[in-house]
Structure formats: structure tokens, C-alpha cells
Amino acid sequence: MLLRIYGWVMTLLIPLLRRKLARRALAEPGYGEAVEERFGGYTMAPLVGGKVVWVHAVSLGETRAVAALVQALRREIPAMRLLLTHGTATGREAGKALLQTGDVQVWQPWDCPLAVHRFVEQFRPRIGLLVETEVWPLLTAECKKQGVPLCLVNARLSDKSLRQAKRLGPLARQAYSSLAAVWAQSEADAQRLRQLGAPVAGVMGNFKFDLQPSAIQLGQGRAWRHVLGKPVVMLASAREGEEAMLADLLTRKEAQALVLTAQPASKTIAPAVQWLIVPRHPQRFDEVEALLRKAGLSVARRSQWPTVPGAPLPQADVWLGDSLGEMALYYGLSDVVLLGGSFAPLGGQNLIEAAACECPVVMGPHVFNFAQASELALEAGAAFTVADMAAGVQRALTLVDDATALATARQAALGLAMAHRGAADRTAVAVAKVLTTGGVVH
Where along the chain do the CATH 3.40.50.2000 domains lie? Predict the structure, then answer.
């Protein structure tokens, strides 16, 4: 009965969702594409037969993370047809790069009875793989009803998310217990997932360690850093409020003195620093530029940099990374990263890509969404934790002023990335066994 009431509520919310999508499409046109897919309306013919493996990567981060898994699945499951779903426009755009002939990409179905039923009927996947956190009550129930083994891969669950799920009571337990298998990132994640009744089949590690940064982008960024001749400190994947924190520090007289004069701890002269901000969400690029200019800072947007080979990099107080798919370039350009989402109480962002690019990270106190990766980075010496943005800026400046410490942190970052690879391959093997045996190997 509770699941039925939930379904009614989700159905009644559809007009609100349509209006929200229309508003989002004004800033991000991708949200206006194929809207009916979200509600079970498809223009393509139903998929019949074949090894259809459904992978749901809700947003950009999950889509990037799942690239290594998709490659591994293609090796383990010959003739696989990929059904790839997303919830965000940036995730859908990035997902296009993962498709091959015969694959299908659509929006995830809204969690209401008609949409999820039509979705499963339309595509008839042999198995479904939800990435990281995306567990929906009606979707899991429908898959179980129609005999589609639905698994949660690269699974994580923070203490905060566990508390929220427990407030949903039987609805959350029904959703998690309906899964065919869960492969967690860490033992701590596994323990929290078991409290919700999830059938944890193993701890595989984190796919994001398997990502290989673009060598071309990384090389270009490093070349620019060499030509620039001064350190670059990047606020990466910045979330709302964090750019203002940094702008406030950079426009204070005492902050300007910190960059250009002796540091109290070392009594050495800190070199001038080039600041780089890359917002997490592209719809905020214009907003962040306006915020920085209002604070009195000059800004140069990446999209407006010269394209002529050998042209000098722009002069500005702050560079604004307003391009998509170039994080390896930005990490290659940077000496140290301030981790977005960790200075505001938002749970942090993925620091693994920074590590793979040999870029040490300074993070604030809020990293609950990436607790395991953060702990591993701290233990390895690839990351440093601070109390707030002011302390983060000072820690970054101290690090770029000490060539030996910076080189050590860079090596630690790369070592961290290399040491924890293999989760995607291990998960692909487990998924293939489910398909061949019809059950989960614990």
C-alpha cells in the first residue's frame, strides 16, 4: 500500500517536473531534448533479444566514472548492447562518447508506475546496473516483478544519506532489498547499505581510480603551466557560495599581502599566484563571472582564450574554466587544487581525477560524500584537510612555495591513483557471472 501511495504522489508531481525541465532548458537546452522519454514515451522500436545491459549514470560524475566499467563489460560480455540512461543534460552529453553501433541512450524514467513499466517493456534489459546511489522504489519493484536483475555498482552511502533513507522506513528497505546485488566502494559503505537491507555481494573499490586522464589535455595544461612561470591554484568543481568565499579572500588587503609577502611560518617570499575557478555546474558560468567582477577582480574565461598556437595566456586576476570535458587540462595546468563542495557543507567532490593528474588537493571539512577517497588521499599524503577557505588558501600557498613538499605531494597523488585501480574489471566479471549463472556469486 505504501508503494502505491508513493506511486500516486510521483504521478501527481509530473506537471511540476515538466515545468522544471522547461525552465532548466532555457539555460541548458539539453533538458528540452526528448522530454517524453522521461515518462515512458519512445519513438524507437522496442528492443528485441540480444544482450542488453542497462547502465544508469545519473549525472556527469557518474558518467565519467562508468566509462571504465563499460569498456570492461564489453570485454566480458561479447556482443553486448549498451542501454545508457541519465538524469542530467551534462551526463547525457558526456555519455554519447561511450556509445557504439547498436547501443541506445535515453533519459532515466521518472519513478512513477506508467513510466517505469513502459521503460522495462521497451528495452527488456538482461541486467540493470545503477551507479553509486541511484535507487528508486518503483523502478526496483518493477524490475523485480519482470525478472530483471537490478544491481547497484560502485555503491556508496554516507552517514547522512543513511539517516535520510531510514526516515523513509519501509519504502527505502523495500527498494534496497529488491536489488539483486550490491557491490560497494568500501567496507564502510557496505555496512551502511546492509542496514537498509541491501544484498551486498562484495566490496570492489571505486571505478574512478580506473579513469585515465586525457594525455593530450594533460600535456597541454602542463605546457601552459611551464610557459606561465608562476604557480596556479585551482578551485575545482566549485559549488554555490564557494566562489564568493575565495573572491572575498582575494580582495582583502591582508590576502593580497599573503600572496606577495613573507609567509609567517617559513619567512620566505611566496610567489605571485594565478587563480583558476572551475564551477561544478555549467549553468553557473555567467553567474560566477558576474560575482567575480562585482568583487573587483578581472576575469578571463577559458572559452575566450586565444586559439593560435604559441599565443600568450590571458592576464587576469582569475581564470574561469567555462568549458566541459577539459578537467584533465585544468589539472595539468594547476599546481594545487582547492576541492569544491568541501568548503560549503555539500559533501565534497571527486578528488581521484586530480590524483591521477598528479595534482595534490587541499580540502575543507565537508567530504562526507567521498569519505573513503578522502581518507585514502590523506593517508597517502596526496591531500590536506583544513577548517575553512581561508586556511585552504594559506595551505595551498605554503605548498606552492615549497618545491620539495610540492613534488612529494605530486608523487603521492599519482601513487594513490595507481594503487587502487581494478574496481571496474572486478565488477564487470561479477556482472558477467550473474548473466551466465542467473544468480549472484557472493
Answer: 215-419
Q: Helix or strand or coil: residue 383?
A: strand
Identify the band that residue 261 occupies on the pLDDT scale cut at 50, 70 and 90. very low
Tell whether the model's pLDDT for residue 438 goes beyond 80.
Answer: no
Distances (CA, A) of 276 to 74, 138, 339, 362: 38, 43, 12, 14
Considering Cα of 217, then 315, then 301, then 256, what sign does the dihedral take? positive
Whole-angstrom distance, CA of residue 331 vs CA of residue 360: 10
Per-residue pLDDT, 20: 96
Q: In this structure, are residues 367 and 386 in contact, taking their beta carbons and an 8 Å threshold?
A: no
Q: What is the CATH number of domain 215-419?
A: 3.40.50.2000
Q: How far apart are CA 85 and CA 161, in angstroms?
A: 23
Indicate the SS3 state at residue 186. coil
The set of catalytic residues is 62
When pLDDT is averaged across residues 178-185 and rounded to a whole number, the result is: 95
Q: What are phi and psi of 120, to 5 degrees?
A: -65, -40
Q: Does domain 24-205+422-437 have CATH number 3.30.1490.20?
A: no
pLDDT tens digit sequence for 81-129: 999 999 999 999 999 999 999 999 999 999 999 999 999 999 999 999 9
d(CA 326, CA 50): 35
Task: Write out the residue limits of the CATH 3.40.50.11720 domain(s) in the chain.
Answer: 24-205+422-437
The model's pTM is 0.80
The C-alpha atoms of residue 392 and residue 367 are separated, in whole angstroms, by 14
Quote the percentage of the chain above a pLDDT of 70. 94
Q: Across the chain, how many H-helices and E-strands are there?
A: 19, 14
